TrEMBL record:
<comment type="similarity">
    <text>Belongs to the shikimate kinase family.</text>
</comment>
<comment type="pathway">
    <text>Metabolic intermediate biosynthesis; chorismate biosynthesis; chorismate from D-erythrose 4-phosphate and phosphoenolpyruvate: step 5/7.</text>
</comment>
<feature type="binding site">
    <location>
        <begin position="13"/>
        <end position="18"/>
    </location>
    <ligand>
        <name>ATP</name>
    </ligand>
</feature>
<comment type="function">
    <text>Catalyzes the specific phosphorylation of the 3-hydroxyl group of shikimic acid using ATP as a cosubstrate.</text>
</comment>
<keyword id="KW-0418">Kinase</keyword>
<dbReference type="InterPro" id="IPR031322">
    <property type="entry name" value="Shikimate/glucono_kinase"/>
</dbReference>
<keyword id="KW-0808">Transferase</keyword>
<comment type="subunit">
    <text>Monomer.</text>
</comment>
<keyword id="KW-0067">ATP-binding</keyword>
<feature type="binding site">
    <location>
        <position position="119"/>
    </location>
    <ligand>
        <name>ATP</name>
    </ligand>
</feature>
<protein>
    <recommendedName>
        <fullName>Shikimate kinase</fullName>
        <ecNumber>2.7.1.71</ecNumber>
    </recommendedName>
</protein>
<dbReference type="GO" id="GO:0009073">
    <property type="term" value="P:aromatic amino acid family biosynthetic process"/>
</dbReference>
<dbReference type="InterPro" id="IPR027417">
    <property type="entry name" value="P-loop_NTPase"/>
</dbReference>
<dbReference type="GO" id="GO:0005524">
    <property type="term" value="F:ATP binding"/>
</dbReference>
<dbReference type="GO" id="GO:0008652">
    <property type="term" value="P:amino acid biosynthetic process"/>
</dbReference>
<keyword id="KW-0963">Cytoplasm</keyword>
<dbReference type="GO" id="GO:0005829">
    <property type="term" value="C:cytosol"/>
</dbReference>
Length: 167
């Protein structure tokens, strides 16, 4: 496989966007946030897409946008936490990218996502929603080439760890 892109996968709040931006700077690659690309494609926010068209529609657009993005090269792509659920997306990522899974403790995730209350899948009791979704996605990120626990590491440490694992 020729590695053309680096793709970050992981549950919400594991640090995909924060780390992806720093990683792109470090590699001198372009940073793409897949959720932002979906919003640009639809001219609408993730929240509004979920509210007006529903999750199934969002997942369809997510697959299309991701496939389009991954035709490019030298990009660090932060995916949405549910992008790994579709086999076609996993295949597409593995076809030409180095896939890095990020994970964190439930406590760290809850703490981080509580800063942004807009996520459609985390409405209601936050702790309960995180635990339920984490349980249902227990093995969803295991297909990644490497997995890094971000709970107790700094962004700089994580970036260097990923760069080291790439070579
Ligand atoms: C989702 C995660 C979100 C976003 C959407 C659905 C998920 O992205 O794609 O709300 O299913 O886990 P982040 O992981 O960037 O929050």
């Amino acid at each position: 496989m020729t590695v053309r892109n680096l793709v970050l996968v992981g549950f919400m709040g594991t640090g995909k966007s924060t780390i992806g931006k720093k990683l792109a700077e470090r590699l001198h690659w372009r940073f793409i946030d897949a959720d932002a690309a979906i919003e640009a494609n639809q001219g609408s926010s993730i929240t509004e897409i979920f509210r007006l068209q529903g999750e199934a529609y969002f997942r369809k657009v997510e697959s299309q946008v991701l496939a389009g993005v991954l035709t490019g090269a030298c990009q660090v792509v932060a995916t949405g936490g549910g992008a790994v659920l579709a086999q076609e997306n996993r295949d597409c990522m593995l076809a030409n990218s180095f896939v890095v899974g990020l994970k964190a403790s439930a406590e760290a995730i809850i703490d981080r996502v509580s800063q942004d209350t807009n996520r459609p899948l985390l409405q209601g009791n936050l702790e309960e929603r995180v635990h339920t979704l984490l349980e249902s996605r227990k093995t969803a990120y295991d297909f990644a080439h490497v997995t890094i626990d971000t709970t107790a590491l700094t962004v700089e440490q994580i970036v260097e760890e990923i760069v080291g694992r790439m070579s």
